[in-house]
Amino acid sequence: MTRRQGYRIGLDIGGTFTDLVLADMATGQLQRHKRLTTPSDPAEGALAGLDELLSREALSFDDLSDLIHGTTLISNAIIERRGSPTALLATRGFRDILEMGTEQRYDIYDLFLRFPEPLVPRRLRLEVDERMTRDGDALVPPSLAAVEAQVAGLVEAGIEALAICFIHAYRNPEHERLVAERIRHAFPQLEVSVSSELIPEIREFERTATTVCNAYVQPLMDRYLQQLERGLVERGFGGRFYLMHSSGGLATPETARRFPIRFLESGPAGGALISAYLGAALGTPDLLSFDMGGTTAKACLIQGGRPTTANVVEAGRVHRFKHGSGLPIKVPVVDMIEIGAGGGSIAWRDALGLLKVGPVSAGADPGPASYGLGGTEPTVTDACLRLGYFDPDFFLGGRMTLDPEAASNALAHLGEALDLEPEAVAWGVYRVVCENMAQAARVHIIEQGHDPRNYQLMAFGGAGPAHAARVARILGSPEVIVPQHSGVAAALGFLVAPASFEFTRSYPDEVQRLDWGVVDRLYQDLERQAHAVLADAGVSEADMIFERLADMRFSGQFHEIAVPVPPGTLSETVATTITTSFEQEYARLYHAVMPGYTPMVLNWRLQARGPEPERAFTLQHDGPQPGPTAAGGENQAKGTRRAYFPERGWVEVTVFDRTTLASGSTLEGPVIVEEAESTTVVNPGDRLSVDALGNLRIEVEQS
Amino acid sequence: MTPNDAQGPFDPISLEIMWSRLITITEEAWLTIRRTAFSLIIGEVQDFGCELLDAKGESLAHSPRSMPVFNLALPRAVKALLEAFPPETLEEGDALITNDPWLCAGHLSDVALVTPVFKEGTLVGLVGSVAHCSDIGGTRDSLAAREIYEEGLQIPPMKFYRAGEPNHDLLALIDRNVRKGEMVIGDLQAQYSANEVGARGLLRFMDEYKFDDLSTLAEVVQDRAEAAMREAIAALPDGSYQQRVALDGIGTPMTLGVTIEVRGDELDVHWDAPPQLAKGAVNSTLNYTASHTVYALKCMLTPDIPSNAGCFRPIRVHAPEGSILNCSYPAAVNIRTMTGWYCAPALFGALAEAMPDRVQAFTGLPISVSAYGRDADGRTYNDHLFQGGGQGAGRAKDGVSALLFPTSAANTPVELFELRTPLLVGAKTLIADSGGAGERRGGLGQRLEVRKLFDDDLPVQLAVMAYNLIEEAPGLAGGHAGSQSHLTLEDGEAVTRGWDLGTLIELTRPQQHVTIELPGGSGYGDPRERPLTAIQADYDQGYLSRGGLADYGCDVDTEGRVFRLNDGA
Questions:
Q1: Is the peptide bond before A268 cis (omega within 30 degrees of 0)?
Q2: Which residues contact A112 (CB under 8 A, 6 or more apart)?
């Protein structure tokens, strides 16, 4: 092994913190580092973090073989409207599609709804005399000279990026291609996003919105990557540099420059990946990844060792947790539900006199009342403190002291409004937030036709381990797993990601009418593209994995189910294979068989990926190995404190320091385990054990 | 004391948890229809709603995305179904159906499908939906209809499933009586599947909470919602609030009047409406009138309260029997939106002074175009192109351009519509100056152009429902009216407009161009009070043309700067 293959780094730039994980490929050892994000120039914080970590470990950039990076840059840029002046070229008669959207009210009783402003204002949306029919026939070809003149005016007006989206371009991209070619040639400085290159799928609004978002952040992504790459080169980095995309794979900076919108949700994808990886290592390929932080809780279903993915996500919502209040972005993403339930979520009394928690969060500033930074409203963290789950002197490993009196006062104040004692409010807040998460997770699992009781929970994030066992009990889930390093889970996830990319082509027709020669050529074409992208990312031909999926439905329906398509040359016989798979899946999801209805395929997908990194890192327990202390109950407790559990009332509960718990230990709940990043709460009736890899395993009592 | 859940099962914490769980169950049912429906009108436009009801047929919760009028119409239909099939005659695996406009949602296209839910042999609740099927047979020329018999298949309260077995007789009858039967039956199957999903969710919920029945929980959630509604009504000064609105009728304008009597924490709405029409299908049943009435009132009074039967107890709705808002059988009712959709603006107008920050100026009404015919392969198509007008302005906010109201639907994507019908949509674009002027401007209306794609002599029928072709709707507090609708058929030199087109247009050649202009929203407040910066922005974006600046007493100089003309200039 050459020296150059020695170390890999996962780098996750979040809104508040930049997390780094360094893996030594020779030993499998991990080193972590955390620092504040530098929002005005995230590259600066990233480079500083790398400098700090490497110098701490006495390494140089020359020792790094891979740097894998995820960032919230894109999603924040859309929320904060920090993208570039962007224009849109649309088919004659359709420039306002972007502004009209679905025309649907996302709350039927609110007469004064707000919608996101379009990223391209009307004066920068121009129409081109061109038209394709639904069959891809050119009805009106574009006049390229006229288009060039139009765009010259836009460039004059100061635009830096241009989106091109024509009607039915998913069916025949020729007009878009011709126009893009002309513009790219005439205005090389302009970033050009083309709908048929980005997302060749039917539905003009979603396609336009996605293309516009991509264009809007293209210059930003380019500048950011330039800065980062320059810094890396200056420091002597000669390894491979990848970015994490939203559906949980690695891609090159070139891909990120072309399709920045595919990198919208890169951090959360890392969290889901590490859950999948650890789950596979523990022999549990099906589980629910559960990440709860200060503002939100996120859950993702891991099925067969892979995170489930979706093909649309909303960006820049006006109301963060209201579906329909944002911009629909049609890109492959890890299918993540997100609800406004975090440590900072504020509890309040609604107009009906009910106790609500979230979605408004006190954030980090002023934060929960117990932070003593001026917050007066009771939050989930305050409730945990009041219930005895958190130690006021050991919050975040003692980096922060909590004020129990401030928490109690805030809870008491709300209690007056609800006619409840402060302690009852505290328990109520905790219970409501756990129920909210369980309910969202349950819908997510049931929607995919599965039973929540079959899924273990993999808990991480600052607040995850304190709530997971209760959430699991509500869901009827048998076990909670709290991995090590849960505070840097996303960055760790980057280290286990394969290079991957998804390609889609629309060729809609009923299964019995499909021309399999066309499908075959289509897949050959997609595989050629995928081959180039993977080769670019350093994947050798032998290691390339291609998976084909067909989005199917009964003719006339609108929602598709993804069904596997066999590899190799395709012929008529495939029709029966995919039809059978589709009908079985349909019956499972909707309890219905539909005799006499015609199955059809809408889109053909290709998921292309390289191998998972052979030895990302060694899973091993950082704490004591099995020994004399492991035989149950002999672990040295850190102390005891009074905590509330509805099953027992107030009890004296034993508190342990996670780093002192040996593999093989078992402890009966109630018990609390503290570590620098989080606190794990084990309820009465549950049993905690520490496995050989250092994971906390909570066997959850079934009610 | 120790914290404890046991101050009764329904402390503010438990109740919050259970209540949101009920709403989640309806959402699961809703998603099932969305994913398994076959028509554009249900699967894409989302003209349906799902509801969970107690064993008496009183509403407990409806899906957050739900056609507003169905939230009242469905419980009424459920009660009628329970009257026809008393609980002791129902068994597990039954599903009930009706589309009776007087019992359900006002026209035959809206079909209620309701599944009783049993626990250990006892009826504990019902799960149901109303959905607008793509076709129900009968004439497509609604204006020609004199009686409901001409409007399609009437389904009185019947069993759609009996003890888990489909009612094949009924299915055969439906299949033979509607256009594109497989699409209609596929949608009914989607409704049935959704009920199954909802029923499973309800039983799981009851098991978890060890409920044998829902009566106590129902009483608590309904009482709480009722109390909130009473509180909101009580905050209105007692008295009588009135408004009249003008509408097109069927080419001859008519007016509707409303009087809202507020007494304490209760409210009576009295509609004053002309006699029902013998021909033309714009008659509204009392169910439909009442549904639109309570919907608009809820938006104003308690927009944040989850809806259930309790919300509507303090509200009574009256309309003279035999009037166009309370028509009698066998009146033709198919295009009752032509009257019912004016209820909300009338109610907003009536309460505009009493609660100025809770009302909205007139919103340009949606226009639906249903396209029907056979393509060159002999296949039948029948789908809706559905689009919104401009939203009316409020005291604090401009109206949104192109927004669907009072329906909660989504528009039809042009590409999907073209894929399913051999038509070409030549444009879908906002109309400059169409938003009513005001301190807050109305949202812009939109223009659509539609023509046949192929020159193949195959006829396409377009059933067009348009509003505000002749009557404009004034704004509130000095705001101006938004633009009216315009409907035009150009065929070479020949141009036909507005009501002369009727509601059924037949196209045979691509040279025939239909242009549909949807109305803009009306404005709120005196346009001269609108900040110059807002007027400049509207001008810069092309929402206002130079001509449109006149409404604001403004003009523009050669540099493109908007300036105010002197008063009286």
A1: no
A2: B360, B394, B396, B397
Write out the two tokens for A614.
């052979």
Q: Which two tokens stand for residue B254?
A: 């008519």
- How large is the C-alpha radius of gyration of chain B? 24
In total, chain A counts a number of residues equal to 703
Name the phi and psi angles at A575, rounded to 5.
Answer: -55, -45
For residue A307, which of A291, A292, A285 has the smallest C-alpha distance? Answer: A285
Q: Note the pLDDT tens digit of each residue in A205-258.
A: 999 999 999 999 999 999 999 999 999 999 999 999 999 999 988 899 999 999
Q: What are the phi and psi torsion angles at A303 (to 5°)?
A: -125, 125
CB-side neighbour CA atoms (13 Å) of A444: 27
Per-residue model confidence (pLDDT) at position A626: 64
Record: contact B38-A556, CB cut-off 8 A: yes
C-alpha to C-alpha distance for A194 and A166, rounded to whole angstroms: 9
Question: Any long-range contacts for B374-380 (C-beta under 8 Å, 24+ apart)?
Answer: B374/B458, B375/B422, B375/B458, B376/B422, B376/B454, B376/B456, B376/B458, B380/B179, B380/B180
Cβ distance of A204 and B414 shorter than 8 Å: yes
Q: What are phi and psi of A240, to 5 degrees?
A: -90, 140
pLDDT tens-digit profile of A515-542? 999 999 999 999 999 999 899 888 899 9
Closest CA to A434 of A474, A477, A461: A474
A662-681 pLDDT, tens digit each: 999 999 989 999 998 899 99
- Considering only the beta carbons, identify the residue of B24, B403, B416 that sits closest to A203: B416
Asked if A121's CB is within 8 angstroms of B410's CB, the reply is no
The tens digit of pLDDT for each residue in A28-63 reads 888 989 888 888 888 999 999 999 999 999 999 999
Query: Scanning every residue of chain B, which has its alpha carbon at the shortest distance from the alpha carbon of A415?
Result: B12
DSSP A72-125: SHHHHHHHHT-S--EEEEEETT-TTHHHHTT---SSTT-TT---PPPSS-GGGE
CA distance A596 to chain B (A): 9
Mean pLDDT score across all residues of chain B: 95
Region B303-329 average pLDDT: 97
The β-bridge relationship of strands B367-374 and A599-609 is unpaired
Half-sphere exposure in the Cβ direction for B223 (13 Å, CA): 8
Q: What is the average pLDDT across A302-318?
A: 89
**Tens-digit pLDDT profile for residues B62-102:** 999 899 999 999 999 999 999 999 999 999 999 999 999 99
Which helix (H) or strand (E) segment holds residue A502: the answer is strand A500-510
Return d(Cα A381, Cα A403) in angstroms, integer: 11
Give the C-alpha separation, B269 to A35, whole Å: 63
pLDDT tier at A634, thresholds 50, 70, 90: low
Find the residue in B nearest to A169 (Cα).
B415
Hey, is A246 helix, strand or coil?
coil
